[in-house]
Design a protein that fits this description.
Order of helices and strands: EEEEEEEEEEE
Number of strands: 11
Largest sheet: 7 strands, mixed
Helix content: under 10%
Structural class: mainly beta
Distance between the termini: 40 Å
Mean pLDDT: 97
Number of helices: 0
Low-confidence stretches: none
Strand content: over 45%
Radius of gyration: 13 Å
Length: 127
Amino acid sequence: QVQLVESGGGLVQAGGSLRLSCAASGLTFSGYTMGWFRQAPGKEREFVATINWSGSRTSYADSVKGRSTISRDNAKNTVFLQMNSLKPEDTAVYYCASAIGIVPVQVAQVASYYNNWGQGTQVTVSS
């Protein structure tokens, strides 16, 4: 079965950086659009970033655009989220997800296109 395991979360001061990783297994990784979502306490899960199968196309939520970079290494079945200039409002559990297939990044901001999710990694940004 598909497994997605996130790592790299932690406690960081505002203005700092974190690099999240998501190791995938049980799927032909290069055949799937991948995404990152987050959920803050008391809020619904929201889209953060997505990347197409080859890594040539990406899309970001306005809230992280310019501060975050999604990338992937298909040889290592891993997707990354580099987050810079972190703000307290970035505090959330961050989830990695694999889409139902090759989904264009223009529409891959919708959670319903993803059918496999990791367990999440906590990111806490202190002010």
